[in-house]
Structure formats: C-alpha cells, structure tokens
Amino acid sequence: MNILAFESSCDETAAAVVRDGRTVLSDAIASQADMHALYGGVVPEIASRKHVEAIAGLADAALAEAGLRKADVDAVAVTYGPGLIGALLVGVNFAKSVAYGLGVPLIPVHHVRGHISANYIAHPELEPPFVCLCVSGGTTLIVDVRDYTEMAVLGATRDDAAGECFDKVARVLGIGYPGGAPMDRLSRTGDAGRYAFPRVQVHDAPLDMSFSGLKTAAINLIHNARQKEEALDLPSLAASFSAAVSDMLVPRVMEAARRCGRRKVAVAGGVAANSHIRADLEAACAAAGCRLYLPPLSLCGDNGAMIGCQAYYEYLAGHTADMALNAYANRDI
Ligand code: KG4
C-alpha cells in the first residue's frame, strides 16, 4: 500500500511516500527555519503562506523520488493536529483535494503519533508495547504505546515544552533559531556542574514535568550577568541547562517504563536529537535492563515519512476521514 503523506504543522512542509508502513520510498522536506530565524521564532502567518507555496511542488517531488505516478497512490495521509492552526489547514486541505481527486482514502494522523512512528522506520524490529518520550518544540509527553493506535499519556509538561525552553534560552543568548541544536553544540566543551539550575517536582504527579522555572532561571542568570558585566561561561551554561532538562525527562520516562512493566523505551521529536538526553537515556536503560530505541537525527524533526508510517497503522485500524476533516491546534493523542 503506497501512502502519500503530508506534514505542515509548524515550520516544515513535508511530503513523503511510504509503502506498507515501514518502507520509505521518498521523503521531501522544505524547511522555513531560515525565514523564521529573522524573527527569533515561528511567525504563524508566514508559516501558513510558505506551506501554500511549497506543498504542491513537494508532492510532485515525493512522487518523482519514489518513482511513482499519481495512479500508484493508494491513500493520502496528513497531520491534522496538534500544531499551528493556519499551517495545519494548508496540509489538511491540500491532502483532502489530492484524496478527492485521486478517489483514494484520506487518513488523518496525530502529529505526536507520527513522531513516535519515526522509530518504526528506524528500527524495523520495533513493535508495541513500549514507553515513548515525546519531546519537541511544542510537546513534552511520556506515552505508553500499548499498540500502534492505542496510547495513554503517563506524564506531561504542565507549562512549556522542553524544546521551547531550549529555543527561548538560545534566543536570549543570541545563538540562533531554532536554539536546541546550537545549544547542544555549544554545550560540548562545557562543564554541566558549573551552574546550578532547578529540577522541579510537580506535587502529587511524579511523572509530570515543568520547564518554565528552569527557563526563567536560565534567562535571569544571563540578564544578571549582563547587568553586572560579568563574563558567562557559555559552553558550561549550555551544558548545565541541558543536564537540567535531561534530569527532568530521563528519570521520569524510566519510572514510567517500570510502572508499566515495559522493557522497551523509545524517544521521539526534535529534542530527541539532544546529545545529553541521548547519553543519559542510554546509561539509564542499560542500568534498568531496557532496550533503547533512538531515531536517527534525520527522523527526529518534523518529516512526512513518519506521518506515512503511522497512517498505515491508522488505516489498518479503520481510522479514515471524509471531506469534512478539520485541523485542530490542540488534540489529545
Ligand atoms: O519535532 P520538531 O522538529 O518540531 C516540533 O514538532 O516542535 O522539534 C523542534 C524542536 C525545537 O525546539 C528545537 O530547538 C529542538 O527540537 N531541537 C533540539 C535539538 N535539535 C532540535 N533540542 C535540543 N537539542 C538538540 N540537539
């Protein structure tokens, strides 16, 4: 089954063809990050307009790269939420038109389910059940993946997403947008013990997380140093901050796996590229006797292949949509 999949929930427009859920025939992506970098963050209106400009060309590119004609497409899939509403609407309406024109089923895919599916592409042997840490610019969730389309949220951030914190602190430091990858690079030569950042516990919810205090602590530290004209050890600041984020995430996902009796732990989303989090998870999983599944960096960020992969399992579960499909800025997994 060849699924032509679209993703447009934030600042990447993507189209991919995935065969039978696990074989990626093509994966075309147009990033708008350079455009939004001018403003220090995603400007929703610009994002929507850039998706409009890019999506048809990417659909053609994905089919050409896969060596397929339009008639070879068996179904069309699209991210329908969560994300920026205007951005999502571009993908949803384009996908509806393609499905309508080709007379094939339309499969709506939850963005975070897509991120989880990136692991199926990277690890052909991986099957549910497993626990997945989903960390991106908009989401921080610990999910029990009971089956391909049956999931339960075990823990969630009460405020900011982890990626958003990286981006905001990087913006104050002036090291670029999106800020996670530059912070990660900067941290490599730093001392993670140099600056003391808070590790927050949410009362009565041990698997929930909170990042806003950590973000504020880092930003205050930078402002105070600037006011006093004190030099900051930037690599150590980035390393200490990354260690605090990792300390918030890793023990919780391990505790979630323990509670659910899962021996497999996966990671998903853009922040899954972080070297501190990856190293800490590797150590924690080795100590707990769990197998760790990390997607390659190329599949951590938004892409169409992950949507095409998850769409296959949604289709098998009977989850298709008609032409009334809408987009949703917020959507439970
Ligand atoms: O999954 P993604 O591409 O888009 C969303 O759905 O949000 O994630 C983007 C997020 C951004 O916040 C970005 O700064 C962060 O992932 N990110 C990282 C790293 N690479 C990307 N955060 C920490 N360390 C990284 N190496």
From TrEMBL:
GO terms for molecular function: iron ion binding; tRNA N(6)-L-threonylcarbamoyladenine synthase activity. Fe cation binds at residues 111, 115, 302. It comes from the Bacteria. Binds 1 Fe(2+) ion per subunit. One of its GO terms (biological process) is tRNA threonylcarbamoyladenosine modification. Keywords: Acyltransferase, Cytoplasm, Iron, Metal-binding, Transferase, tRNA processing. One of its GO terms (cellular component) is cytoplasm. It catalyses: L-threonylcarbamoyladenylate + adenosine(37) in tRNA = N(6)-L-threonylcarbamoyladenosine(37) in tRNA + AMP + H(+). It is found in: Cytoplasm. Substrate binds at residues 134-138, 167, 180, 184, 274. It holds the Pfam family TsaD. Required for the formation of a threonylcarbamoyl group on adenosine at position 37 (t(6)A37) in tRNAs that read codons beginning with adenine. Is involved in the transfer of the threonylcarbamoyl moiety of threonylcarbamoyl-AMP (TC-AMP) to the N6 group of A37, together with TsaE and TsaB. TsaD likely plays a direct catalytic role in this reaction. Belongs to the KAE1 / TsaD family. This is tRNA N6-adenosine threonylcarbamoyltransferase. It comes from Intestinimonas butyriciproducens.
